[in-house]
């Protein structure tokens, strides 16, 4: 029964979330935290792990959450649930691609959806920033260590672009953040 529940919850998330994995985070949080599967802090830690591992963040989160709730079969159920709606939609779009994109109504809808996707991603970024920088176990207070790491990453990116003429790899940024976290949170 828990496998079916994991499948249905993540299938619902996959079916109604547009804009990629980050736009799914508020829905995943609502489902997972309200059911007591994970705390807010545990979910944010899983977001960090899911972002640091290869693959789409939504698939990684579904796999991790399913695994914490029901082992390997739970991971499989949640992963198939989050992927299946997109897979079916892409199959339909691929079958109708040329005709589909020539339709004026479809073109207008796609332009409108772009704005919503940007808004969803920005809202998710803001939600994550508030969770990481301001909400701690002691209530609402600024986490200077998280702010320091974020400032370090921004400085690293700006300095690399300005003086070295390249954008640092996400892997380098993740490693910098991990090192900063180990140093600052171990003090």
Task: Count helical runs.
Answer: 7
Give the spatial strand order of the biggest sheet.
1-2
Class from secondary-structure proportions: mainly alpha
Q: Spell the H/E element sequence.
A: HHHHHEEHH
Number of strands: 2
Query: What spatial form do the alpha-carbon principal axes imply?
Result: globular
Secondary structure: elements and pairs:
Blueprint: H1 2-16, H2 21-34, H3 40-52, H4 57-102, H5 104-133, E1 135-136, E2 139-140, H6 144-164, H7 170-186
Antiparallel strand pairs: 1-2
Helix pairs in contact: 1-2, 1-4, 2-4, 2-5, 3-4, 6-7
Describe this structure in words.
The chain is mainly alpha-helical. The protein folds into two domains: 140 residues, no CATH class; 45 residues, no CATH class. The chain is built from seven helices and two strands; from the N terminus they run αααααββαα. The protein has a two-stranded antiparallel ribbon with strand order 1-2. Strand 1 and strand 2 form a beta hairpin. The longest helix has 46 residues. The protein is globular and about 55 Å long. The N and C termini lie far apart (45 Å).
């Amino acid at each position: 029964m828990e496998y079916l529940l994991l499948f249905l919850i993540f299938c619902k998330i996959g079916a109604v979330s547009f804009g990629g994995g980050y736009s799914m985070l508020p829905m995943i949080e609502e489902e997972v935290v309200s059911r007591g599967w994970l705390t807010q802090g545990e979910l944010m830690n899983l977001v960090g792990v899911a972002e640091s591992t290869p693959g789409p963040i939504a698939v990684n989160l579904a796999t991790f959450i399913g695994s914490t709730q029901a082992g390997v079969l739970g991971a499989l159920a949640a992963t198939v649930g989050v992927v299946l709606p997109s897979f079916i939609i892409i199959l339909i779009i691929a079958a109708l691609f040329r005709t589909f994109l020539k339709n004026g109504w479809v073109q207008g809808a796609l332009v409108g959806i772009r704005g919503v996707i940007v808004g969803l991603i920005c809202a998710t970024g803001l939600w994550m920033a508030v969770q990481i920088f301001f909400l701690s176990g002691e209530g609402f207070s600024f986490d200077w260590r998280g702010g320091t790491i974020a400032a370090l990453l921004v400085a690293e990116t700006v300095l690399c672009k300005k003086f070295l003429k390249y954008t640092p790899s996400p892997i380098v940024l993740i490693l910098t953040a991990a090192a900063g976290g180990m140093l600052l949170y171990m003090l």
